[in-house]
């Protein structure tokens, strides 16, 4: 049994790495198409039918582009930073049940690498460690704008980790567990948590934009400075690892939100599985929608929103939840 469990776990890890690495590439295609549609443009059209092979072309470019290590960078840290970003994104997926259990040739498959009893804490902790990728990448670069971007990114990630943690405390108090499987089972019995915790849902959703570095909280990339922030001096597949980490995080958080607040996969039926994938697709689409519709806000506005608005609301929500449960 131990051998079978080990083989099953290795297969799950390989499938997650392959599927979500591919989805990161496809995510760029969907993003470019969605943005083009909303801005009355065509987007990718010429490489393959409807521009579908643009993803393959971009992948070939990343893998074959010259890997340049600029002069005066801190070499080892500069090389390690992209690996941290990509690795932590995929490590966080270990506690996420992507689908309900199903049977394959008489063998029961659980589409989760490890259903640990501190699943949510593990996911938030590993995603928090992911801030070291942009931070070290910017600090190791020989570029002042990369350094500014790294400091700004660390401030955003650390600040909104507080909001994420506080917002999720109220649902955890209700469920009495940190396992996402337990969250799903609780909602199958008692109804979606969003109806009893709408404030926590909104807070968690807002913080997700900061956690993934997406518009309107896309400050770490320094778009208004016409450079790529902490990734300015990166090229080839090292830059690609930052890129894959960002899109993988978007997919993973798009699974986590419906699992915590919107009933997950329900009773585990085929319709429940399709419903979970549909919810995930909506949240991923919403990341793209906001990029087309909202401008980036200033760093001081972002910090003001976090510490003076969202965090007090999260604390009040926890207190009210505790009083109601008593």
UniProtKB/TrEMBL annotation:
<comment type="subunit">
    <text>NDH-1 is composed of 14 different subunits. Subunits NuoA, H, J, K, L, M, N constitute the membrane sector of the complex.</text>
</comment>
<feature type="transmembrane region" description="Helical">
    <location>
        <begin position="247"/>
        <end position="265"/>
    </location>
</feature>
<feature type="transmembrane region" description="Helical">
    <location>
        <begin position="6"/>
        <end position="30"/>
    </location>
</feature>
<dbReference type="GO" id="GO:0016655">
    <property type="term" value="F:oxidoreductase activity, acting on NAD(P)H, quinone or similar compound as acceptor"/>
</dbReference>
<dbReference type="GO" id="GO:0009060">
    <property type="term" value="P:aerobic respiration"/>
</dbReference>
<keyword id="KW-0520">NAD</keyword>
<keyword id="KW-0874">Quinone</keyword>
<comment type="function">
    <text>NDH-1 shuttles electrons from NADH, via FMN and iron-sulfur (Fe-S) centers, to quinones in the respiratory chain. The immediate electron acceptor for the enzyme in this species is believed to be ubiquinone. Couples the redox reaction to proton translocation (for every two electrons transferred, four hydrogen ions are translocated across the cytoplasmic membrane), and thus conserves the redox energy in a proton gradient. This subunit may bind ubiquinone.</text>
</comment>
<dbReference type="GO" id="GO:0005886">
    <property type="term" value="C:plasma membrane"/>
</dbReference>
<keyword id="KW-0560">Oxidoreductase</keyword>
<comment type="similarity">
    <text>Belongs to the complex I subunit 1 family.</text>
</comment>
<dbReference type="InterPro" id="IPR001694">
    <property type="entry name" value="NADH_UbQ_OxRdtase_su1/FPO"/>
</dbReference>
<keyword id="KW-0472">Membrane</keyword>
<feature type="transmembrane region" description="Helical">
    <location>
        <begin position="192"/>
        <end position="210"/>
    </location>
</feature>
<keyword id="KW-1133">Transmembrane helix</keyword>
<keyword id="KW-0830">Ubiquinone</keyword>
<dbReference type="Pfam" id="PF00146">
    <property type="entry name" value="NADHdh"/>
</dbReference>
<feature type="transmembrane region" description="Helical">
    <location>
        <begin position="154"/>
        <end position="180"/>
    </location>
</feature>
<keyword id="KW-1003">Cell membrane</keyword>
<protein>
    <recommendedName>
        <fullName>NADH-quinone oxidoreductase subunit H</fullName>
        <ecNumber>7.1.1.-</ecNumber>
    </recommendedName>
</protein>
<feature type="transmembrane region" description="Helical">
    <location>
        <begin position="271"/>
        <end position="290"/>
    </location>
</feature>
<keyword id="KW-1278">Translocase</keyword>
<dbReference type="InterPro" id="IPR018086">
    <property type="entry name" value="NADH_UbQ_OxRdtase_su1_CS"/>
</dbReference>
<feature type="transmembrane region" description="Helical">
    <location>
        <begin position="80"/>
        <end position="99"/>
    </location>
</feature>
<feature type="transmembrane region" description="Helical">
    <location>
        <begin position="119"/>
        <end position="142"/>
    </location>
</feature>
<keyword id="KW-0812">Transmembrane</keyword>
<dbReference type="GO" id="GO:0003954">
    <property type="term" value="F:NADH dehydrogenase activity"/>
</dbReference>
<feature type="transmembrane region" description="Helical">
    <location>
        <begin position="302"/>
        <end position="325"/>
    </location>
</feature>
<dbReference type="GO" id="GO:0048038">
    <property type="term" value="F:quinone binding"/>
</dbReference>
